């Protein structure tokens, strides 16, 4: 236990995260601190292709460093690259131990820079990382060849990934407050991690009993969030979204979030949102930039807010409205389970906004 505690402390103190990638480009291991730098949870990236996280222009460099001779096999013209295939293992080049240099050879040391997708970046969406480590034999894979014989251990990249540009004091302070929430497809809250409970002040039970979740979003940010919600339902990811959330002590908290769909058996099952608290000055700057953009179109956010019957492909039926909102100023209900009153669907954006405290 002491050894584990020491390892966790070292990872927290490290300005980066540990990454182990097989020769086929599959992430065998990532330390949990990857979430502090890229916004992805450790479980989400393990056993996935690393090339899905790397900028297209940097993928050849990363693939080159996975090969012991810095000379990966070339893909014939007209065929998809190994990263694009469904089975990365099929593109593996199996090497016998006697074909490889000694494990302590300086030829196996690696130090290079690649841009990784970053859910926390508010400019390019990528973070330049310096990967420093070496190729080492990865034991315990127990892989077999086509004839059933056990394959020898293969080299994998063991590296420490650190940001090319040192983080600012503000980034160091805020990175430890990144939190994640889980939602139904209509954004109804299902779960919130411990950091989220600290930032927002709610328990999971309090989050679940309040409806779709849009009643926690500032009325001035609702259409903006709805448009990114629609984008996520169509593409699988919302992109960076900066908005205000209502805390339990009735204060607005600016957050920078990225929502994405999680699929099961090829169908979207739920939404996972990674959120980082912002200071008011950062939020205000985003609001000024947003105000310079064109107004929302009727086919996206406004269609949801005003309960239009305009079809939105990919959205569940409960998002489609069956009537027009009433002009009544009274809130439609105080609980998500209430029936429709005044012709306003409680689960709609308008119904959620009307349930917010006027103050």
Automatic annotation (TrEMBL):
Ranges for region Disordered: 68-92, 317-359
Main location: nucleus
InterPro entries per record: AHR/AHRR (IPR039091), PAC (IPR001610), PAS (IPR000014), PAS-like_dom_sf (IPR035965), PAS_fold (IPR013767), PAS_fold_3 (IPR013655)
GO biological process: xenobiotic metabolic process
Residues covered by the PAS domain: 3-73
Entry GO terms, CC: aryl hydrocarbon receptor complex; nucleus
GO molecular function (one): nuclear receptor activity
Chain segments annotated as coiled-coil in the UniProt record: none
Alphabetically ordered keywords of this record: Activator, DNA-binding, Nucleus, Transcription, Transcription regulation
SUPFAM superfamilies from the UniProt entry: PYP-like sensor domain (PAS domain) (SSF55785)
Subcellular location: Nucleus
Pfam families named among the record's database cross-references: PAS, PAS_3
Domain of life: Eukaryota
Protein name per UniProt: AHR protein
Species of origin: Aegithalos caudatus
